[in-house]
Design goal:
binds (2S)-3-(carbamoylamino)-2-methylpropanoic acid, binds zinc ion, 16 helices, alpha/beta, eight-stranded parallel sheet, seven-stranded mixed sheet, globular, 515 residues
Length: 515
């Protein structure tokens, strides 16, 4: 793969050149597979079928023996995030470039205001960081890291067409940084329900973690192994349960990000059995691709590179169990939570594990890792792979069928996946900005041969040809049918919150066999 950056071609020139036929491939959507050809023009899928009539000057990609899938959608990234005294290493250019290299054609990043900071101001900062640099389309979730009537008002403003936000993330961990107490968490989730926006939670008990950290440090446990010891599975599962109870009290659906353990999945399943609103679970490439054994590595750099929250689990059965949960629709989607830090930044926690900036890589390898761990092992079929890596995110975040489907009038965001393409994952060859890869040395069978972003061939038979700034911000509307379609309207919103713009949910498209 040559890495020569492609010179900027004016966007209007590009699209007219984008007549493309993908021939002889097997189309894979979340609900079925078919041997059909795909014709693309000006960034949109115009025809799907056989013996298509196409204009001269069309480029043809022969996809014989390959799968033609919707481009991956990564619902969880943190590019250029400042946290714990450092800044994540992958910026919006390098991060989305790595995403495209791995078959992902849309990412959803997180606006994370500091406590007391205006959400609108933070939103503007993120748009400024991302617009003009992204190589593929992107969306945003907004963090609710503090609570006040102003925050409530700004959430309402963010869900209008001007800003295009339909999901908010609250933290039950990161005490003193982003964590909300249960009262404020309840108010935030209630407000999401009134706005018909999707609340997301980082589910760990931040107070237990804080006390465990004090005790471990007092005992002289300062290395990265202390990170997992301070927050084991039940500390995650307890918060999953508590978040579901609060959502139930607020008559709200809920999306739990980065679920990392079997205990957390069990807690979500138990909540589903007793609650009527949609409860959604996300896991990560890291949690299916590796495990918590690395925290014991004698090399600080190696162990610290695996520090994220919730942590990777020492139970070796976890990766397979999480793949099975994705296959069985106990979990609905896989993200990366890509939040990488250079070695010097991870060393901020050299003598105190709670100061190690949290985050790992994953945006580039997410799809190949899941294909290797779940499809090649027979745990899930290609249709379910498409559902959890693309379609479910599109449906949940109300981008469907513009995104997440190979169909006429959908965006031409596609992957020509070669199920036989073998490679070994390594920091020496990956496109990410850091010189460490938590999947180092893993051999995968199955990777993208072509990646088409809005009709442009950005991975061309293994050659990476992204264009910085080619991607655009995707505004999302609230009231996603897949989440709110069958939910009754919540109790009348308090007078001061104008929600008149919100329509009633329409019948939701099938989100797998969602309970
Ligand atoms: C802030 C971000 C950091 N990444 C991580 N999971 O450790 C997150 O908690 O999602
Ligand atoms: Zn989190
Ligand atoms: Zn080392
Ligand atoms: Zn995250």
């Amino acid at each position: 793969m040559t890495n020569a950056p492609v010179k900027k071609v004016p966007i209007h020139l590009q699209s007219s050149q984008n007549r493309l036929l993908i021939k002889n491939g097997k189309i894979v959507n979340d609900d079925g597979m078919e041997d059909l050809d795909v014709y693309i023009e000006d960034g949109i899928i115009k025809q799907v079928g056989r013996n298509l009539i196409i204009p001269g000057g069309t480029r043809t990609i022969d996809a014989t023996g390959k799968l033609v899938m919707p481009g991956g959608i990564d619902p969880h990234t943190h590019f250029e995030l400042e946290m714990m005294g450092a800044k994540s290493a992958d910026d919006f250019y390098k991060g989305t470039r790595a995403a495209v290299a791995g078959g992902t054609t849309c990412v959803i990043d997180f606006v994370l205001p500091q406590k007391g900071q205006s959400l609108l101001e933070a939103y503007a900062n993120w748009r400024e960081k991302a617009d003009g640099k992204v190589c593929c389309d992107y969306g945003l979730h907004v963090g609710v890291t503090w609570w006040s009537p102003q925050v409530r008002k700004e959430m309402q403003q963010l869900t209008t067409e001007q800003y295009g936000i339909n999901s908010f993330k609250m933290f039950m961990a990161y005490k003193d940084a982003w964590m909300l107490d249960d009262y404020d968490l309840y108010c935030a989730i209630e407000t999401c329900a009134e706005l018909r926006a999707l609340p997301q939670v980082h589910a760990e008990n931040g107070n237990i973690i804080a006390r465990n950290t004090e005790k471990l440090l007092a005992k002289g446990v300062t290395g990265p192994e202390g990170h997992q010891l301070s927050r084991d599975e039940e500390v995650e599962a307890e918060a999953v349960n508590r978040a579901c109870v609060i959502a139930n009290q607020a008559s709200s659906p809920l999306y739990i990000v980065h679920m990392m353990s079997r205990s957390a999945v069990r807690a979500l399943q138990q909540a589903r059995a007793r609650q009527r609103h949609v409860l959604l679970g996300e896991t990560l490439a890291a949690s299916v691709g590796t495990d918590g054994s690395h925290y014991g590595n004698s090399c600080f750099r190696h162990a610290a590179a695996h520090v994220l929250s919730p942590p990777l689990r020492p139970d070796p059965a976890t990766p397979q169990a999480l793949c099975e949960a994705l296959a069985d629709d106990d979990l609905q989607l896989i993200g990366s939570d890509n939040c990488t830090f250079h070695e010097k930044d991870k060393e901020l926690g050299k003598n105190n594990f709670c100061k190690i900036p949290n985050g790992v890589n994953g945006v580039e390898d997410r799809m190949a890792i899941l294909w290797q761990k779940a499809v090649n092992t027979g745990i899930m079929d290609p249709c379910r792979f498409v559902a959890v890596t693309s379609t479910n995110a599109a449906k949940i975040f109300n981008m469907y069928p513009q995104k997440g489907r190979v169909a006429v009038n959908s965006d031409a965001d596609l992957v020509v996946w070669d199920p036989k393409l073998e490679r070994t994952i390594s920091a020496a060859t990956h496109k990410q900005a850091v010189n460490f890869n938590i999947f180092e040395g893993q051999h995968v069978v199955g990777s993208p041969q072509y990646v088409i972003v809005n009709g442009r061939v950005c991975l061309d038979d293994g050659e990476l040809r992204v264009v910085e700034g080619f991607g655009k911000f995707i505004k999302t509307a609230v009231d996603s049918p897949a989440v709110f379609g069958s939910a009754p309207a919540p109790a009348a919103a308090p007078a001061q919150l104008d929600v008149s713009h919100v329509s009633n949910g329409s019948p939701s498209p099938d989100l797998g066999n969602m309970t």
